[in-house]
Amino acid sequence: MPRDLPLGNGHLLVNFDKSYNLRDIYWPHVGQELHTAGDISHTGIWVDGQFAWLDAPEWRRELLYEKETLITHVTLEHPRLQVRLVCADVVDFDRPILIRRIEVTNLAGQARNVRLFFHYDWHIWNDRDANTVFYYPQQQALIAYKQQGYFLQSGQVGQGEQRVTGVSSWATGVKEVNGAEGTWRDAEDGELGCHPIAQGSVDGTIALHLPIIQAGKSELAYHWLTVGSNLPAVVQLDQLVRERGAEGLLERTRNYWLCWVNKQGQAFADLSPELVDLYKRSLLVLRTQIDAGGAIMAANDADVQHYNNDSYSYMWPRDGALVANALSHAGYGEITRSFFDFCAGVLTEDGYLLHKYNPDRSWGSSWQAWVDDEGKPQLPIQEDETALVIYSLWQHYLCFRDVEFVAPHFRSLIVPAADFLISYREQTTGLPGASFDLWEERRGILAFTNAAVYAGLQAAANFSSFFGEKDLAAKYQAAAEEIKVATIQHFWDEQRGHFVRMLVVEQDGTIRKDATLDSSLCGLFLFGMLSVNDPQLRATMQALEQVLWVKTEVGGMARYENDYYYQVTHDMTQAQGNPWFICTLWLAQYRIACAQSLDALHEALPLLDWVHKHALASGIMAEQVHPFNGEPLSVSPLTWSQAEFVMTIRWYLGKYAHLQGK
Length: 662
Known about the structure:
alpha+beta, Beta-galactosidase, Chain A, domain 5, 15 helices, 22% strand, hydrolase activity, hydrolyzing O-glycosyl compounds, hydrolase, 6-hairpin_glycosidase_sf, Glycoside hydrolase 15-related protein
């Protein structure tokens, strides 16, 4: 189930699903330590003896964010219960506090008793065992803990002098043992058992009893969760919420994100308000997925189990570099600096980056082997991941000219990485050596990787020239040109009339081509190896659009011919694969790059509108779209998709300004 509403601050990340269930709680690193296993933490309401969980099918629900903030705006109505809930959820912008504000409106013709219930299913430190949950009378709160992880649940009902702080009732208990479902079942009669403590595989539920709600009137309730490494830490945060007021903390976080996403001097040319809103939403969603230590995570969603029960909660250097590039061009240099610091810290002694990393800089899990099928050593890398970090660092420098930041990374990151890119070459062709492709499905010499390595070496040459290292600059520049020439020589297929996506050089020196049309061929112009005016590049792009554009009413660009991943149809005349946000945005970037007039530039707008149409209502972009019904498929949220939209908007605005200045 996708995560429609992520909220975070770089330390604490929480996700709500499409039914408005709280599912994921990550802390202290974004995407690493998951304390709920992705299980449902239920929220429910009791009204005069009737009960409903908020994920029940009877609810009419709308899940959105407040405009230009990381505060939710969720509206729910229940015909039978005759209540309306308007909910605002927020993670404080710099403290590990989740605040939930719920306004309950009584739609019935008489006064009514209402109680709200907040349940948490604990797997602290990714483990269901040896957890404890207990009632803490000093704060009238429920606290769960294991080792150095503490989670305090509290709340408030009423306003002004009638305000009551602390939980009205509570339940602690075991789950997943001897058929026990959890304390959330205890809530369904409107009463909680108030058992003081439970250990092992546990959960906890609190109740907030609202004042009597008159007919047609509303009452407010606040629930908060504070997180810390010990009891005093969570109690101190709880006391802060009580003293400052939950509404005050919500308001200050609202103001923070409004300022953050509205950079001074922004202008959006002739883009529609809908596209501008999605641009800002993409930036905000990206921010939730970035750890305070610099790791830009691919996606954080406990339901995504891929490749042997694994997830997307890792920092892929490629994805991170492309996200960082988009953020740099959008003006967020403070975030991208942390990313480049991270990469410098994990670069191997030989100058390359590995497959993926955890946000604490440890290696992420990987399926990429250190030996080939014959047992011979090979590097388990995607070489574009190393190259694109250097390319993105140069783009960062062009945006901010922060030489004091870049200078220490020249010897620690740029030179060793560039030296590796030069050394890792296939001898027969002079092209980059074999590595895994960006889709992580095949190994060989790849057009996308060639373009990325070319860009990385060009960036290294630029840095070297800037720092007065003329010999290094000449060496890197020469290698980049050699790779460009070899790419054109070996990857162009005269018979087919387009570039091929991959070569494999056999032991006897023969070259085997994989001529599958693959949208990754867009890398040839994305990173500057070939001009969009190059006739061979233009022919390739025409072939890609002709073959990979989905022929159903949904439209959009597929990854490559006969793409198997989540394949919906085997009818290749309709769809070679499911349309991807990333691939469709690459096509938009190509149209923007080609534009020589405003009318030509506007040919990119239908593709941007396509993205807007098929994103979730909350602004989240997944990997791909169902080719027949247009619904998002697979991972959500995916930072790469959000970043490509941001980058495409930056391309559009840059070209618009250029054309206006002609």
